[in-house]
Amino acid sequence: MALGLLWAAGAAAQSPPPAAAQAAPTGAAAGPYKLRIVGGLAGLNQYTRKEEPFWNKELARLSNGRFEAEIVPFDRAGVPGSEMLRLLQLGVVPFGTTLMSSFTAQHPEYTAPDLAGLNPDIATLKTTLAAFRPFLEKALRDQHGVEALAIYVYPAQVVFCKKPLRNLSELSGRRIRVSSSTQADFVGALGGVPVLTGFAQIVPSLTAGNTECAITGTMSGNTLGLASLTSHVHALPITWGLAVFGANQTAWSALPPDLRALLRRELPRLEAAIWEESERETAEGMACNQGAPSCTAGTKGRMVVVPVSPQDDRGRQDILSATVLPRWVQRCGARCADIWNQTIGPVRGLVATAPSGK
Question: What is the pTM of this model?
Answer without folding.
Answer: 0.89
